[in-house]
Amino acid sequence: xxWDYPTWWGVVLLxxxxxxxxxxxxxxxxxxxxxxxxxxxxxxxxxxITCPWCAGFWIAMLWWLAxxxxxxxxxxxxxxxxxxxxxxxxxANIDPD
Length: 97
Prior knowledge:
With 97 residues, this protein is an all-alpha fold. It has one domain. 79% of the residues lie in helices and 0% in strands. Helix 1 crosses helix 5, helix 2 crosses helix 3 and helix 4 runs antiparallel to helix 5. The radius of gyration is 15 Å and the shape is globular. The mean pLDDT is 89.
């Protein structure tokens, strides 16, 4: 079995997709009620979900695993998330309000 690695472009797409996935789970309003339920159960769990170093690592590992299982499909699914991440980052820096 040979091990391939993603191209630099694949790494960028996977990284942005991992960032966007973390943002959706940790900070977007769509998961506010879920985060509140988790926080009521245990505040350390909420800290884990909202920490980019903690949850971000595991989200990145899931994206890497997806790439290993099917590089083509991982990049296809990652692309809209990557575009969304770039859009959000641009909007936050152009109009921070």
